[in-house]
């Protein structure tokens, strides 16, 4: 079990979880936030989409322990969000939902589009929403709802947020999963600095090490390159 600390919908959460626990299962089973739906459980349908550090992410294929220290927002945490409120009204007006199973993920993905698209270009919206599947509506109402919200906000002079807060590809302010420390490089006991011919046995050295940009100079002949070392007894 691993201790997990994260913030869910502006509330600090701390729990012991198994390393294999997915974020969606933790959110639903441990926190009882069942607005995050599970569909394919392969990261394809988009029903489990939520926000991790402000960026949409598939919670069914995200390990809970990889989100240690993150800020997670589910559909329940967007009750008072202005953009989400506009989208909910537009979805209802344009008949963009029927069974509602895909709707939480649709709203979160659509919110990201409203934030960052400069205009309501239908093709860009369709491409961006292609990761959220719906078996009921045929997508026409969904696209109309998103376009209407973007048009209304731009008409009110609300400019798009470039990248919606993204500074790099992937989730904001963190990489997916924990960054493990790089193991220290090992050096051949015959002073080989890379996978090269061993100076003693003339065989390929099996010790893997990170090759430096420049080899250290020989203390006897000050040779900087292996090609100039064979004449030096110390290098041999």
Which bin fits the share of residues in helices?
A: 10-25%
- What name goes with the CATH superfamily of the domain at 81-162? [2Fe-2S]-binding domain
Overall outline: globular
CATH class of the domain at 81-162: Mainly Alpha
| Total E-strand runs | 5
List keywords for this structure.
236 residues, alpha+beta, Ubiquitin-like (UB roll), DNA polymerase, domain 1, 5-stranded mixed β-sheet, 24% helix
Provide an overview of this structure.
The chain has five helices and five strands. The chain is an alpha+beta fold and 236 residues long. Among the domains are: 2-77, Ubiquitin-like (UB roll), CATH 3.10.20; 81-162, [2Fe-2S]-binding domain (DNA polymerase, domain 1). β1 (2-8) and β2 (11-17) form a beta hairpin. The longest helix has 16 residues, at 140-155. The chain is globular and about 50 Å long.
């Amino acid at each position: 079990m691993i201790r997990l600390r994260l913030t869910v919908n502006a509330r600090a959460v701390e729990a012991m979880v198994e390393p294999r626990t997915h974020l969606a299962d933790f959110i639903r089973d441990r926190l009882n936030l069942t607005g995050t739906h599970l569909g394919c459980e392969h990261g394809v349908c988009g029903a489990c989409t939520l926000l991790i550090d402000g960026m949409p992410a598939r919670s069914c294929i995200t390990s809970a322990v990889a989100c240690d220290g993150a800020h997670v927002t589910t559909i329940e945490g967007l009750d008072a969000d202005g953009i989400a409120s506009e989208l909910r009204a537009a979805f209802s007006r344009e008949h963009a939902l029927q069974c509602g199973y895909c709707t939480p993920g649709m709203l979160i993905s659509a919110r990201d589009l409203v934030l960052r698209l400069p205009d309501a270009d239908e093709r860009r919206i369709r491409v961006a929403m292609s990761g959220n599947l719906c078996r009921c509506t045929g997508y026409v109402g969904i696209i109309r709802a998103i376009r209407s919200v973007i048009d209304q906000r731009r008409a009110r002079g609300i400019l798009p947020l470039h990248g919606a807060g993204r500074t790099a590809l992937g989730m904001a302010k963190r990489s997916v999963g924990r960054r493990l420390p790089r193991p220290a490089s090992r050096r051949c006991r015959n002073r080989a600095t890379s996978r090269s011919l061993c100076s003693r046995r003339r065989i390929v050295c099996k010790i893997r090490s990170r090759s430096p940009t420049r080899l250290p100079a020989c203390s006897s002949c000050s040779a900087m390159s292996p090609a100039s070392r064979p004449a030096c007894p110390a290098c041999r």
